[in-house]
Amino acid sequence: QVQLVESGGGLVQAGGSLRLSCAASGSILSINGMGWYRQAPGKQRELVATITRGGRATYADSVKGRFTISRDNAKNTLYLQMNSVKPENTAVYYCNADLVVANPYRYLKVWGQGTLVNVSS
Fold it and tell me: How confident is the model at residue 27 (pLDDT cuts 50, 70, 90)?
């Protein structure tokens, strides 16, 4: 079975830093695009950042200059480095990946279960 597991969330003070990780496992042949999304209380899920297999990144305007998305293809792992965090960044953060998997060969879009980031003021 293929799955994504996020880690690294928790409580952090405003102005601090946090690094989220997302590890993919299973019979994975390759991972194409990956991304981070978040959902704050009472709000819709929104895109935070995306990254291609080659490392091209895009960001929501609200996180530009503070967050950095990266990936380690050898480890099938995605990261989000969060610097200068703000209380409004409090949300459940979800990992997403477009996978090519084996047995049977197929394309899948997979979501993780999420990790909570709570930024105190």
Answer: very high
